[in-house]
Amino acid sequence: MLRFGVIGCGYICHVHVNDIVNNLHGAKITAIYDVNKKSAEQVISEFKLGIQPSNSIDELIESPEVDAVLVFSKNDTHTEPILKSLAADKPVFTEKPLATTVEEAKQIVDAEVKKGKRLIQVGFMRRYDPYYQELKQTIDKGEIGAPLLGYCRHFAPAPPNDYYKTSDVINDTFVHEISVISWLFNDEYQSVQVQYARPNSTNTASELQEPQVATLKLKNGAIINTYLNINSHYGYEVKCQVIGETGIAELPDMPSTRIHKDEKIYNSVPIESGGRFAKAFQLEFQDFIDHVSKGEEPAGPSAWTGYMAAITCAKATESLQTNQVVDITFGEQPDIYK
Ligand code: ISE
């Protein structure tokens, strides 16, 4: 039984811990830490873990009761526990993004390369979503010819907190499209442009300017537009349409109960990623457990993928500030990621 130490006890921690305890096999939680001890105690009691919160990140990582570390803390706090897990030679699953600056992402990649083996998996769960998988297979089989254009929609009903910032729309939300589009289209990015649309007057987060429209261009010339809207009000919705030389392939509308009520007929929509991507979250974690418990390297999205995403996010933010198309270059991929 693989023993996990969990760092960070917010929304996504609840999703993953629930899966580990109730839906997956081969792992259990033996240590948990949050800067706010009460949040750790709440998870312990909700999932009847029967453990005490750890007193520090170091104590948790160094514990002989912990085989692998799960990082679910705030986006800009991932680097320290990841580097410490590598130093302790423990596999680590980190939620996306890998890091919020290119410098920190590079530091992580350099530390992993120095170890000479992969220990890190990044939580880009869309690659495990059965509908995205089917979309990729359709493209890879050549059913729509070479993909030329893409249209994506990434909507959330409301900002997850009132300190959600303009740059979070890129580092926290758009980062999912950044991760999944190059995988779907089998190519690297050449440039990015992000623009603001007319501001949503119902927005309540003071440092948040959105909606935004992002345009990614791949080296092969394909262009993909994404509408990013954090104040959709109606729900959490992700769309992806790929236009190829001989046809179009797109994610289906998500099946949901059809309700007949109050002179209306309608379908319900999830309000959080945990609803829409429930299966993907389970598959990504089971995959991590299966590989790591056999002593193998994690097979999911690597730190290199996280590093390329961090570079693309930085260029996207630069574009938002300068209103220019910004070119993107990545260095050479180290051997451990090939
Ligand atoms: C959140 O962190 C996610 O990862 C969701 O997938 C994204 O849609 C949401 O906007 C983010 O806040």
From TrEMBL:
Protein encoded by which gene: iolG
Family note: Belongs to the Gfo/Idh/MocA family.
Taxonomic superkingdom: Bacteria
Gene3D superfamilies: Dihydrodipicolinate Reductase, domain 2, NAD(P)-binding Rossmann-like Domain
Positions of the Gfo/Idh/MocA-like oxidoreductase C-terminal domain: 136-327
Entry-linked SUPFAM superfamilies: Glyceraldehyde-3-phosphate dehydrogenase-like, C-terminal domain, NAD(P)-binding Rossmann-fold domains
This protein's name: Inositol 2-dehydrogenase/D-chiro-inositol 3-dehydrogenase
Domain Gfo/Idh/MocA-like oxidoreductase N-terminal residues, every copy: 2-123
